[in-house]
């Protein structure tokens, strides 16, 4: 039994030979196992790479980035290690890697960073990797290549764009080639949740040095991979020991840039193939022929020290000129075909939303609104005719998530018409969600964003004087990792390093796994949700800490919960605190839920007495 389980679904199961250029969509779903509890997790190594260039002076980006880093420091244990690098046009190691024992001193070192000159992201990434993996080659390099050049050593890079004035294409390239995630935050204070989510992901890894390749045969004319960066090159000549699936049988190989898998993660890869079935002429009229569509090759190691394992997933399709037999075959795989149809619709929705946001950013409000409305209606119509079994699938949750963001984006176009910043913010949010949703509703990328939103909501709802770091949810496994913050064009990127498996968790015993959730019987797809105004998000946040606790408890115990990312500046203009579309969430055991700190009745009474005494002291001073 493979360590990573997989299933294969396709948009069609049997095709005739008399067609040319047949489009076949193949959906590969990979499920990681649940982490085995251990007694103690291994140490974590974190490197914070802070951009102190002039652009960080705007909107308090640097102070909030420092605050987020200090919260992260509070999450580290004494056995963990930390390093700090600051950069503008020069790179300075402010703190060599050291045990995180004296947290207050480390936070003072971090707080001492001052605004400087220009941004030099490439050299900053190289310096961080030197600290993690030893010397690297010097010289001019593309930023994306720098981010990805140490993937074999277990170092990954995620990127966080802060504000509106960064280069999102560069930031996405860092994340895609670095095997990490791309995030967009409107306000720098939201970095608190993002860094917390990234740290938790680093503690939940089930694979390291993950690599995925697709080997294309002559029967496939072209390849398109949704949601992942790819590199295509000629297939390597085969050796004698490579057997019947040797590389010489393939035209080229497509490397799919893939991050490592987390505990119980369900990740999807949607590949669109253009197939030539004429190469599979039936040798016997009464028999269907199996036509190879290539091989998906998955390589990984379970720990940093363990050997590389390989899983080969053969892809194929039946070629049959007997129409009755062909239809019977496709009918037998109706559920599989329906799942792929829903996944394709979600992928096409990502592309449509991106077009709509491009029109919106250019000021073409009506064109943007029309694209959003047309696609929202298509998804509503599709859901109304969807078979009942689909309501138990991740694809159904993805369509729900898509419909909600299309609806909220359309509702926001009127306000965005005269607000350039809001249009830019919506465009960046759209790019972030496209990448996250393309990997699947239960992918670590999509769930990390949900976790970050939860944490930020708890953190920002507290009075500033009480914003003490929340305890890190106990991870299911341990690893050695490192993260860095770097910030090209007012962005931030994370680098994760070598991992080792570990750790227990008692918080997740009563939570529902994705597999358990999808096996439950659920009602038929509901009607389209009513329109939700963005202003409701701000109102919900102002209802107090007690309601927030109730919402989080509901999130843990129900099978479906609505999530909306937090607004981090209630006293600013609405356009500045626009939250990304809400997310329909099913709980995952490896995505530990963030809880606000609990107080006993005695603690509450003591807090009230202290507040009353402080008030009396203040009045007494005023009278004197």
From TrEMBL:
Coiled-coil ranges (or none): none
Pfam family, one: VWA_2
InterPro entries recorded: CLCR, VWF_A, vWFA_dom_sf
Stretches with biased composition (Polar residues): 461-471
Biased amino acid composition, Low complexity: 475-517, 530-551, 578-604
Superkingdom of this protein's organism: Eukaryota
The VWFA domain, residue ranges: 45-274
Biased composition regions of type Basic and acidic residues, renumbered to the chain: 605-624
Annotated segments matching region Disordered: 402-421, 461-624
Name this protein carries in UniProt: Putative VWA domain-containing protein
Lineage: Eukaryota, Metamonada, Preaxostyla, Oxymonadida, Streblomastigidae
